[in-house]
Design brief:
86 residues, elongated, 6 helices, single chain, 0% strand
Length: 86
């Protein structure tokens, strides 16, 4: 069995580390579920792209396909606290 330094593993595989630790942070798709229209969705996509949390290619794809995904407005205010992440 290989032993890993916890901090090194966290830096190399941040998403996997979060899953193993049992924590999950909302993704861009989770935020898009709260948007009521395409304008709000584009603001969220721009924000995530600006912060470097999504690639420019993925951001472009989301902008073009946000309506087709069918997730706008599927989660209402307070559902994260009440139901948790799905």
């Amino acid at each position: 069995m290989i032993e890993w330094d916890k901090d090194r593993f966290r830096k190399m595989f941040p998403n996997l580390y979060q899953e193993l630790e049992g924590t999950r942070y909302p993704t861009v798709l989770d935020h898009l579920e709260r948007c009521e229209n395409e304008e709000q969705a584009k603001e969220i996509i721009d924000y995530f792209e600006k912060r470097g949390e999504i690639t420019p290619e993925y951001a472009s794809w989301l902008r073009e396909n946000v309506r087709k995904l069918g997730i706008l407005g599927t989660r209402k205010r307070g559902e994260y606290e009440r139901d948790g992440m799905r």
